[in-house]
Amino acid sequence: MAKRIFVGIDLGGTSIKTGICDEEGNLLKVGEGATETELGTERVLDNIVACARKIVDESEFSWDQVAGVGAGIPGFMDAEAGIVHFAPNLPLTNVPVRKILEDKLGKRVAIANDANVAALGESWSGAGKGVPIVVTYTLGTGVGGGIVVNGSILQGGTGMAGEFGHMTVVPDLEAIQCNCGKMGCLETVSSATGISRMAVDAVKRGDNTMLADLPQITAKDVFDAARAGDETAHRIIQRAAHYLGKSMAMVAIVVNPNRFIIGGGVSKAGDTLLNPVREAFRQFALPRAQENVEIVAAKLGNNAGVIGAAGLCLR
Ligand code: ZN
Question: What is the CA(1)–ligand 1 centre distance, in A?
């Protein structure tokens, strides 16, 4: 029998990334196309279909070998029902995406939130391979997350499980408002945006730091300065790590995972970030909940999305 393959779609506001995986989660081919968000709902869905067909056409595989197509979508959705309710950067408001794609592709389709899909990818064939309960944090513009239990994403009752970025961890007196409207969310301090904001605040306050010479301060600049011995930058990283570790200690008591995986752009800082996070986690977590729990960097980089999306159809 010909090998079964799975197509993964990582839908973004500007590009559609695609990948072909085998049943073991090996990424065999990658592709990319334009989302063309500005051209509306139908065009975006047609582009997804075209990208899925194109990557298979250009591969050594036939369309008959496709056992399923999965899509990771940045937004709020009922993944079970296959309906996207709202996606901030896409024209997909209350759209039954799964049904439409199934009709157009003639294949089984599954959809899930992009952060959950990235978590599934890492659990299937990345830093969480073979680990029963994996919790992934994705640190980028915001803080996303996902919980994968024995190979399945824990969606939660309304798809909100794993939204770690909106855990209230910063004490009231130090809290600022999050994009979600609440005060003191993890995302306000531990995302790339949060880290750069704290640096800008420090410069405005007149703190002595090499960051003051930069026209714009990115999270990467703050990590670089911390590595170069800048005290202010070091303090900012410690603060971001402190709240990240604190939130993980809370998650550990609820989910009790075997492994935490940290991915997203900010995780490129490696041990400069991970070591203080591990320290904070040990400080806050209940001893029994931190035994044999590892905190590691993600392995798949930008491919976690397409791999996890492909993996959606295996279950
Ligand atoms: Zn929030």
Answer: 49
